Amino acid sequence: MKRKRNILDLFRTRGCLVLFLLVILVIGTIITGTIMYQMSIQKKTFSKNFHLEINSISVDDNMCAYSQMAHFPNGSVDFRGFNNYTGYPNGCYVVPNIIHIIKFNEFEFTFIQMICIASILTNHNPRLLILHTNMEFKGKYWEAIQRLPGFDKVRVQYLAKPRSIFGLSLNGKYGIWHSSDVARLRLIHTYGGIYLDNDVYVVQSLDRYRRFEFALEWNYHMNLGNQILIGHRDARVIPLWLDTYKEYNASLWYYNGGVLPTKAVLEHKPELIHRVRDKFGTDTQMIFYLYLNNDTSWQWQEYDVIHLFIRYQGFEFNESSVFRYPHTVIKDMILRFLPDYMFPTSEELRRINNR
Prior knowledge:
- The protein folds into two domains: 55-281, Spore Coat Polysaccharide Biosynthesis Protein SpsA, Chain A (Alpha-Beta Complex); 284-354, no CATH class.
- Helix content is 38%, strand content 13%.
- It has nine helices and eleven strands.
- Strands 3-2-1-6-9-8-10 form a seven-stranded mixed beta sheet, with helices on one face. A two-stranded antiparallel sheet has the order 4-5.
- Helix 4 packs antiparallel against helix 5.
- The longest helix has 56 residues, at 2-57.
- The relative contact order is 0.11.
C-alpha cells in the first residue's frame, strides 16, 4: 500500500508540474502575441503616416517639378546626360530636404550625438530628420534631444538591421557598421535625401548640394567618404555601388564602404556624382585639428559639415567634462550647441574646474 501511495504521489507531483508549465506556456504565448500585435499595429500606422510625410515634401520646398525632369516609362528619373558639375540648371532642388540617421542596436544617445542633432536642426533646418532604428530610444540625452528647438521635425522610424546582401552574411566582425553602410544606400535609393553619420556636425546648410543627382566627398588621392551622402533616389551611382557588394569582404573595415566603390565605380564614371573636396570634413586629419591642435584660429567654419571621428579619441564628452577639456576647436563647437537646460550652474562650474 505504501508503495502504491508513493507512486500516486509521484504522478500527482509530476502532473501538477506539467500543468503548471502548460499554464505558463499559454500565458507567455498570449502576452507575446498581444505585444507583437500591438507593435505591428503601431508600426503599420506609423509607416503609413511616415510615407505620407515623405511624399508631401516633393510638392514644395522648391523641389523640381515632375514636368521639369526626364523620366523612364516606369516613372523613375532619367539622369542620363545630367550635369553633376553644375547641377540642375534652373536652381530647383533634385534631392528632398530629409536627413537620415541610422542607429542600430543602440537605445541611448551619447552627448556628442545630441550636439550633432542640435547642429543639424539649427544649421541645416531640414523638413524632416528621420532616426532609423531597430530599438526603442531612452536615456537622458534622448530626453534632452526631445527638448531641442526644431524637434517637431524629428521622426523615429523602425528599420531592421540588414543581415545579408547577395546571400553574404553581414554578421561578421564589422557587421554592425557594414549593415549601416548597406542601409544608408538603400534608404537614399528608397526615399532620397541626406544621410549623416551619428557624429557628423553640420556647420552650414547643405541645400547647395541638393541640386545634384548625388554628392559626396572624394578628396584627391583618397577614397570616397560615405559619412555624408546626398542623393536622389534614382541616382545612377547607387545600384552600381550596391553591386560591388557581390564582392563583399567582411574582414576589411572600409573595403565595400569606400575602397571598392571608388576603384570600381567612381574612377571609371566620375560624372555620376558631384565631387566635393575639403568641405565635408571626412579626412582623418580632422582628428588633429579638432582634438590635438591648440590653435583655435583654424577656420572650421569654412566647412559645410565635419565628421567628428569621435570613436577615435578616448575622452568621454558630457555636459560637465567638456569644460575640463583643453581649449581646442571641438570645445568651441560643442559649446555652441550645449542646450541652456543642460548648462552647469556657476557653482557646478567651479566644482568642475577644481577637479
